[in-house]
Amino acid sequence: MTIGRNRNTSPTATVSGGITLNSSSSTTIAVANTNRVFLHVSNNDNAIGFWLKLQPASVDDDMKGIFISSKVGAIPFWEMPTDNIYTGELCAITEAGTFEIFITEY
């Protein structure tokens, strides 16, 4: 984990659209990146929430971590705090069913 890097030094962002998640196994949504300065994960589904985990997908398939809700009035996205940047692999698993999420990283 790198702490304290809070400026975007990259001229471009990487947008990953349509990463398919399911409820039976954790899926890698962002590989480890020691140059990461920002990460935004959004839930594009209005019916299913998912668990965002700051760990490799190979660790487990448990439904735990940061829950990104799909409920009315909930915030359907998560942004990594810029004052405490996690540079390891991230994974996710849905609470039920299958759907796609979107990632923006720089």
Describe the fold and architecture.
The protein has 106 residues and is mostly beta strands. The protein has one domain: Jelly Rolls (Sandwich). It contains no helices and eight strands. The strands form two sheets. A four-stranded antiparallel sheet has the order 1-8-3-6, with no helix packed on it. The radius of gyration is 13 Å and the shape is globular. It starts with 13 loop residues before the first strand and ends with a strand.
Keywords:
single chain; 106 residues; mainly beta; Jelly Rolls; 4-stranded antiparallel beta sheet; 0% helix
Short description:
The chain is mainly β.
What does the secondary structure layout of this molecule look like, with pairings?
Elements: E1 14-22, E2 27-30, E3 39-43, E4 50-53, E5 66-68, E6 77-79, E7 90-94, E8 98-105
Antiparallel strand pairs: 1-8, 2-7, 3-6, 3-8, 4-5, 4-7
